[in-house]
Amino acid sequence: MKTNTKYLPIIIGSTLALGIVLGSMMNATVEDQFLAKNYSKTKLNKLIDFINNEYVDSVNTDSIVNLTVDNILSKLDPHSVYIPPAEQVSVVESMRGDFVGIGINFYMYKDSVAIIKTVENGPSAKAGLKSGDRILFAGKTKLYGRRLPSDSLFSKLKGKVGSEIELTVFRKSEEKKLKFKIKRDVIPLKSVDAAMLLANKTGYIKINRFAETTFSEFKSGLTKLKQNGIQSLIIDLRDNGGGYMEEGVAIADEFLKDKQLIVFTKNKNGDTEKTYATARGGFETGKVYVLINENSASASEILAGALQDNDRGTIVGRRSFGKGLVQREMDFNDGSAVRLTVARYYTPTGRSIQKPYKKGNEEYFKESEDRLETGELYAKDSIKVADSLKFKTPKGKVVYGGGGIVPDVFVPLQVEHGNENVAYLLQTGVVGHFVFEELDKNRNAFAGLHFNEFLVKMKNDDLYFKQFKKYIALTGLDLKLDKTKALVNRYITAEFARQLFGELYYYDVILKEDAMINKILNAKK
Q1: Cβ atoms 38, 25 nearer than 8 A
Q2: Which residues cross the membrane (predicted)?
Q3: 484-519, pLDDT tens digit by residue?
Q4: Domains of the chain
């Protein structure tokens, strides 16, 4: 249709006018939105000031702000969280992989700070402190008889690198007080608990979390194992709740060939970021097994998913937790921080392994407990998988999304006579405290024993099982231990080995009857 040219100026004028009107309306809308958002912020600030200045009673307004932040984040997802200043300090140290201190493992035994073990080659070990010592004073500060919380104790023992602290210690074995001057130093917080050789030229590496130092620790352990001629490797990610995604990606790169996809993320705008393996892999041909359970999450699932989806590794164990959300941290001036979910991650086949969280945080975290009731921890057939979330690997293996990594080889929860409460109890700190107290009664009972002699002693002695039964009864826990005697004795022996000989000896004992390890080793025979 032709337009009459004499009306063109009117049309153009009208269009311009309409554009101006629409533009002003759009500007007004943007301005109104801006004012509305700022009004909400101002409203909150005015309320806090009003309470601070006028409320009849004294109120810690910082705690009110913290509650407000917590409440806001609780409306989002389970992994968007506020971390208070005191907690953030320990979180940062844990994820950095070190802290400055004197190098001891301790706990409050009765009313005293008791040293369980000194860190090997740490300041306290070099100064001469020993397991069983009680720290009475840090400088002039009295530590015994006060039942100080752990964070207060840490603050007394931590400091700047090279700073000196004088400790007054009571040594029970000598029945006397001793003084030690100790220079604080950087103490590593290991994220790789063990890197050791098992049977059949199989290496084993246990990772407890993914911190800044995890890849370098892992690489060091893998290098030593390769020098010992390993042909296969077991990576233990059980009870590993995750950490830095980059560290899990770096470890996956050791096993995958150049340009194989490791993981990809999508943000709210749909922007996708893909991460591929490089040519640097140090173990691209040997067999790989990854151990997971219901507490393996986040970066653990990224590593397991990358190897499973690329047909590179065999996943052994039970369905993992199901965390497929990526967080970014924002720090505040008071030392606190907020971790906000900014993206979802996906395994190479396109799986999101994030489990649903629409029913709220309580139901979300309780889901892991529900797996006991549904029987999932005892039978693979009880794992609920959706056909709509079915994916295939390059070799045609079926894998599932929608809630954790489903293992290739299922291994039920290792309990005897179905007593899972005992199994979980044995993995808490209670066994460590019991063993310390038993050693504290008579350390000379183990003096001069070699490891094999120690094993014979523990196998032939029923004393510690009986003592542990009494110890548990005193805590008020009504647990029947007789039917799980072999399991209990294994954990007790392993903990004695750790405190007497070191971390690797703990795993030397605990892995001998480990159901997942034996499943792999027996299949290779």
Answers
A1: no
A2: 7-26
A3: 898 899 999 999 999 999 999 999 999 999 999 999
A4: 41-53+61-74 (no CATH), 98-188 (2.30.42.10), 192-328+343-410 (3.90.226.10), 420-524 (no CATH)
